[in-house]
Amino acid sequence: MRNLLFGLVGMGLLTAATTCAADTLLIERVEQSRTSALPLKGSTMTAVEGSFGAPTTKHDAVGSPPITRWTYPAFTVYFEHNHVINAVVNKANPQEIGPRPVAARSSAQ
Fold first, then answer.
1. Residue 47 and residue 81 in one domain
2. Is residue 103 part of a domain?
3. Same structural domain for residues 81 and 58?
4. Which of 2, 4, 47, 87 could form a disulfide with 38 if both were Cys (CB 3.0 to 4.6 A apart)?
5. What pLDDT was estimated at residue 98?
6. How many independent structural domains does the chain possess?
7. Are strands 83-89 and 57-62 parallel, antiparallel or unpaired?
8. Same structural domain for residues 13 and 45?
9. Half-sphere exposure of 101 (CA within 13 A, CB side)
10. Domain membership flag for residue 109
11. What range defines the domain where residue 55 resides?
12. What pLDDT, on the 0 to 100 scale, is given for residue 109?
């Protein structure tokens, strides 16, 4: 039992040391996104452009219903038709690793 306790404490210290070496922790970026000013769901394209200015890039609509993406320096906004369906904070740098996507369930389950 004592060895297990020392092992767990050692793993925790190793994890903490590795995490502290990162420039920006993912958890800090998540907290930042909660306090960042992002367009609200349901806002119109006109309202978003009025509040945040012209986007850096306006991507063409894709699919049905049409989903349009506007990229700003700090965040990206997704529209269905003319209304915001989501807004997300951009990666701090291309090397930033975020959460892993959820694996698809097999049809056998």
1. yes
2. no
3. yes
4. 87
5. 64
6. 2
7. unpaired
8. no
9. 3
10. no
11. 38-95
12. 46
H or E, element range at 4: helix 2-20
6 and 27 inside one domain: yes
Measuring CA to CA, how many Å separate 65 from each of 45, 61, 71, 80? 16, 9, 20, 7
- pTM of the predicted model as reported, rounded to 2 decimal places: 0.61
Amino acid letter at 55?
A: P
Coil, helix or strand at residue 2: helix
Please, which residues have CB within 8 angstroms of residue 2's CB and are 6 or more apart in sequence?
Answer: none
Domain membership of residue 76 (yes or no) is yes
Q: Is 27 left (phi over 0), alpha (psi -120 to 50) or beta?
A: alpha
Over its length of 109 residues, how does the chain's per-residue pLDDT go in tens digits?
Answer: 666 555 556 566 555 555 454 455 666 666 665 656 899 999 999 999 999 999 999 999 999 999 999 999 889 999 999 999 999 888 777 777 765 555 555 555 4
Asked if 58 and 52 touch (Cβ cutoff 8 Å), the reply is no
> Is residue 87 included in any domain, yes or no?
yes
